[in-house]
Amino acid sequence: SAVISQKPSRDICQRGTSLTIQCQVDSQVTMMFWYRQQPGQSLTLIATANQGSEATYESGFVIDKFPISRPNLTFSTLTVSNMSPEDSSIYLCSVDWGMSTEAFFGQGTRLTVV
Amino acid sequence: QQQVKQSPQSLIVQKGGISIINCAYENTAFDYFPWYQQFPGKGPALLIAIRPDVSEKKEGRFTISFNKSAKQFSLHIMDSQPGDSATYFCAASRGRGSRLTFGEGTQLTVNP
User: What does the alpha-carbon distance between residue B10 and residue B104 come to, in Å, rounded to a whole number?
Assistant: First the structure.
């Protein structure tokens, strides 16, 4: 398994501002995924981040709102831009080593927008 | 369109009882079906997973039953314990380590 560290673990932000969430893994991974979990809801995939290429976004999510960086095989960031209260969610980083391995999750970043 | 439907939304079971959570999927291209357990303030943790070439997989007190023709799968927790109280998510994907589509989640409470 992987040790996945997310920072910050929680934050309270003013509407209109942006927050960058970091995901650090203790080993090199092929694919990194960002999920959103709205209060009391299930997990929804935001985007897939591969090193060296642009992130691939799921329907309903756009790069201007959720820009993602993947500078190397152990690190990624997700930015939540121009936040509104509707962005209040838990944001989760997930990693795996390719098609033959399980997906592991970080502990999540609990974001509250006021 | 929700591709994985999960029920019930919440479940209360007495200690020692059997907890059963059901999921149904639509996309026949899915070939990997994991279950995740999530405690408050934590990320989901993989519990058990199955591929459609088998109808059942058991790991300790946890069993997945899979019905390919009905496109349904279920999680059975035998001898449920208060420590099993958590939210359980079924999921599906094309291959392990791929993009996961999650069910809505089931909040399980096991009373002492």
Answer: 11
B72-91 residues touching A, CB cutoff 8 A = 89
Residue with tokens 């970080």, as numbered in its chain: A106
The DSSP secondary structure of chain B, one letter per residue, reads --SEEEE-SEEEEETTS-EEEEEEE--TT--BEEEEEE-TTS--EEEEEE-TT-SEEEETTEEEEEETTTTEEEEEESS--GGG-EEEEEEEBSSTTS--EE---EEEEEE-
C-beta atoms of A103 and B96 within 8 A: yes
Query: What is the average pLDDT value for chain B, to the nearest integer?
Result: 93
Report the C-alpha gap between B29 and B82 in whole angstroms: 36
Chain B: nearest CA to A96, how far in angstroms?
A: 5
pLDDT digits (tens, 9 = 90+) for A1-44: 678 999 999 999 999 999 999 999 998 888 899 999 998 889 99
* Average pLDDT for B68-94: 96
Above 90 in pLDDT, residue A62? yes
Closest residue on chain A to B103 (Cα): A42
**Nearest-CA distance A41 → chain B (Å):** 6
Among A30, A97, A103, beta carbon nearest to B100: A103
Q: pLDDT higher for B1 or B59?
A: B59
- The tokens describing B48, both together, are 């058990």
